[in-house]
Amino acid sequence: MVYQDPAHIRTLRTFLNFLTLLLSHAFSQQLQMSVQTQEARIILAIKAIRTSKKLSRRKAIKIYEVPESTLRLSMNGSTPLPERRPANTNLNELEE
Question: For residue 32, which of 5, 42, 71, 94 sits 20 to 30 Å off, Cα-Cα?
């Protein structure tokens, strides 16, 4: 017969509960960050720059963690690459 100390079992359960809580918190933080895509952060940065007089582009880039070139091109109104039409097409949009 194997004897198990009740205090040892309680300590193990407490440790497992703590570990579960720690891992669930880590995964929830990771999921929260992945939900906010780069496109959403760019839109938020542009809105913040346009509404705030004191927020510069450089500060917005650091706050919202977006690339400088992407923010600059988005603010200047250029079309993103996935939305552009290929240059080597023979038909225009009306002919298709």
Answer: 71
